[in-house]
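S.,

Sequence below, as promised.
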Amino acid sequence: MNAVVTPAMDWTKYTIDGWLEQFGAWCETVRMKGGDLPNGLHVNQIFWLMREAGKPMGTSKCYIRCEITDFEADQIQNLLRSIFKSDSVDYQAKYALMCLVRHKVENRSLSAVAMITNQSKAQVNILVGCARYFLHAHDKRLKIS
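The prediction came back faster than expected:
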């Protein structure tokens, strides 16, 4: 009988913030590959093809290069999904994690998250910090710094 071997996840590769930023970059990469028509070249597909060909791209402070595999992205997605869908995780912890996801995965500033959630920047900063510690306590393989 053939056994399926799944690759091991190296959780020490990044910190919590690094994993979430990489997951956000992976999501952006997947979105850039997509298009409405199967063989049509759309703006995001042209951008992706230029990046793949090694053409120089415009520099941006907020650009994060995706350096994780699909398997690693799936592991991060499963971790986040398990927390958000869990009945045993408190609403406040989920809310704090949602703020962290908006900040790191969606690459939004603390001020932008504060506007979206109708809070002050200081409150969002506290929630983001709490969410980091919650994730570390939830899964000891994840490192804070």
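The chain has a mean pLDDT of 83.

Coffee later?
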